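Recall that a protein's primary structure is simply its ordered list of amino acids. Everything else, from secondary elements to tertiary packing, is in principle encoded there. The following example makes that idea concrete.
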Amino acid sequence: MSKGAKFAYRPVGLLAGIVAGSLSGIVFKQIWKAVANEDDAPSALQSEYPMREVVLAAAIQGAIFAATKAAIDRAGARGFTKLTGSWPGD
């Protein structure tokens, strides 16, 4: 892939990252509500939650973000390829 095509994909990749972050946050919040029966997940600095719960919440949130980002990045790359004929990661 040429440097120009890689440069052209950057705004798509940036937008995909923003969308993935927003969407994964919504998905995580819904899953946490169902699993923990609480509206908000514990943060690392909230002393009323045990370490296990804080780490579990962070692991679930990270996995959801990674999967969502990969799916959105892949869809964006496919769309870019259909428009340009070049795969942005090559």
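The mean pLDDT is 88. The radius of gyration is 17 Å.
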